[in-house]
Design goal:
The chain is built from 14 helices and 15 strands. It is an alpha/beta fold. The strands form three sheets. Strands 2-3-1-4-5-6 form a six-stranded mixed β-sheet, with helices on both faces. A six-stranded mixed β-sheet has the order 8-9-7-10-11-12, sandwiched between helices. Helix 12 crosses helix 13. The chain is elongated, with a radius of gyration of 30 Å.
Length: 466
Amino acid sequence: MLPVVAIVGRPNVGKSTLFNALTRTRDALVANIPGVTRDRQYGISDVGEVPCVLIDTGGLVGQAEGIDYLTARQVHQAIDESQLVFFVVSAREGLTHEDEEISKLLRQHDRPVVLVGNKTDGTDLDVSLLEFTALGMGAALPVAASHRRGVSALMEQAGATLPPADQSDAGDAEADDRLRLAIVGRPNVGKSTLVNRLLGEERVMAFDRPGTTRDSISTFMEHKGVKYELIDTAGVRRRSRVTEAVEKFSVIKALQAIDRAHVVVLMLDAGEGLTDQDTTLLGHILQQGRALVIALNKWDGMEEYDREQVLSQLDRRLQFVTWARRIRLSALHGSGLKELLKAVQEAWRSATVEMPTPELTRVLEKAWQAHQPPMSQGRRSRLRFAHAGGSLPPRIIIHGNRTEAIPASYKRYLENVFIRHFKLRGTPLRIDFRSGSNPYKDKKNILSARQLAKRKRLKKFTKRKK
């Protein structure tokens, strides 16, 4: 196992900036306002000689209530998991009462601590860091995380304390053989509750208030031999209602999670039905070509009449995604989770299915013989063969003559034929046509074979006559 290092401190001292600098990523959301980070964010740092797992945490405040209390619980769990703690303080703002309270808390956890004096750029180190010796944790190590100054020295000091990493486990941790599953939806539809229920622990904060999750949080699980990377995302509201800069970045991170996911679970509030914002999110998922499962959450608290109305609405408005399975579940009580994971695996299998060229061509020929495309300008398109063009989503390339004249209705007919044959469920299918080019299309004064033969006979006759 890789050693674990937790990054703790009060709000807005640069913990997430330090996390990004040490992991060489932008996984942690960074903004110049306190309280942006709330959940634990994990990442791998290879700075220095000892690789380790870093945990970014939210800021600790004095009187923790509501969301601040849940954030503090996440910090305590991160400290319990770690073998070393980076206690980050602000050299620019100096020693505060909150820093002293956090130092007392760290002594209770009995973990080795490295005191990190961040935001040292533009300050006199001898003066700005001297007062932190009153915490009794040794001299603060100067760091400017936003400019990556001092991070190598920080990891060298950490390497002297951390146990050596098991390289065999490190290689397994970096293997990209996991099914990336992104859970997206509007605010307060139960995304974080679903992630916690799947993991069987309070991994991310679930609070009965919209906007609790601000960052995209990745975590790992394994179910029946399948390894997953679960990505909990922030709720996406309508653009007109997004006013804070932090929320704009949260929306960007959620859309990025869709882009890098293999399968996307679109969570709907069954009590509210399908809203315009849900269809906007659905459009982005389809544009990226991701496999899709639609989850109707809070299903157990509905009356039978309301359930029938919701299903009728979905049948009417989602006719263009009939291939996506709809799972009814309760993230709070855990009902429907087995069906959800089964639908996710089915969508993943369909999105990565292998389609051999001979089989594709045979299916194409049978479809063409059973129903040929309509004639255009007195001529009919001829489809010759097909081959696979990629996966995620599966793509089929069809070659033939005059394919540009094939109407969209015939393209949908072919899509349905291939979907039924390969038993695809939960993924879109894309078909592209390729026409054979005519080498004489743009050339002028090209004589046909009959004209050439006639010209040769005319030359011979002229020679004889002379």
